[in-house]
Amino acid sequence: MAGKVIIISAPSGSGKSTIINALMKEGKLNMQFSVSATNRAPRGAEQNGVDYHFLSTEEFQQAIADDAFLEYEEVYPGRYYGTLKSEITRIAAAGSNIVLDIDVNGGIRVKKLLGEQALALFIEPPSIEELQRRLSSRATDSAESIRQRVERAAYEIEQGNAYDIRIINDDLAEAVKAADEAISKFLAD
Ligand code: ADP
Ligand code: 5GP
């Protein structure tokens, strides 16, 4: 069935993108990413319209005023992220299931909104120390950005209790397998 929503949240640096990309590559789950909007700057090789719709703060505020978002959050101070309603419509019209890579506050809100139509999956690192190591080795974030991400991780891990399924990303292959099984089961029901 198409039009189901898979919410995936994790402390930044846990390996969420790595896991989702591995699942997308397999291609069998008929899922497409909802491309969020943000006012943060592109990181590394990120492309506008592919990784995010990169907006100025003014454009983001205008989109809020236009009621363009299903949800949005100030995830880090001054840094806004939001799920565009137009993305949900686009993906559902294409006959695919929708992947929302969103923060814990947005994830819990959307899960409440959609109930059984959504699967809420939380990915966590084996430890905060390992999270810090992964963020440093990814080498895409400034020291300040890494500090903010690590600082928020404990709060996010606590919120993970509200999710349908939690997966610890220690061994990557095992984490991909666990996510694959959970999503396949949800889409088959
Ligand atoms: P997120 O999307 O959660 O912010 P990424 O997928 O960018 O995180 O992963 C952060 C870093 O950790 C990347 O450099 C990635 O290659 C690495 N990584 C991902 N999963 C693992 C794992 N199981 N073990 C070790 N390193 C990992
Ligand atoms: P990053 O800057 O690492 O790409 O993302 C930072 C955080 O913002 C991650 O937790 C990511 O899931 C979250 N995020 C990305 N898009 C959205 C969105 O549309 N809504 C919400 N609420 N969070 C988002």
Element layout with pairings:
Layout (H helix, E strand, L loop, with lengths): L4 E5 L6 H11 L4 E3 L3 E2 L14 E2 L2 H9 L3 E8 L2 E6 H9 L3 E5 L2 H11 L3 E7 L3 H11 L4 H17 L5 E4 L3 H17 L1
Parallel strand pairs: 1-7, 1-8, 2-7, 3-4, 8-9
Antiparallel strand pairs: 3-6, 5-6
Helix pairs in contact: 1-7, 5-6
Bound molecules: adenosine-5'-diphosphate (ADP) and guanosine-5'-monophosphate.
The site of guanosine-5'-monophosphate has 14 residues, from strand 5 and strand 6.
Notes on the protein architecture:
By secondary structure, the protein is an alpha/beta fold. The chain contains seven helices and nine strands; from the N terminus they run βαβββαββαβαβααβα. The strands form two sheets. The chain has a five-stranded parallel sheet with strand order 2-7-1-8-9, sandwiched between helices. Strands 4-3-6-5 form a four-stranded mixed sheet. A hairpin with a 2-residue loop joins strand 5 and strand 6. Helix 1 packs across helix 7 (172-188) and helix 5 (128-138) packs antiparallel against helix 6 (143-159). The model has no long low-confidence stretch (mean pLDDT 94).
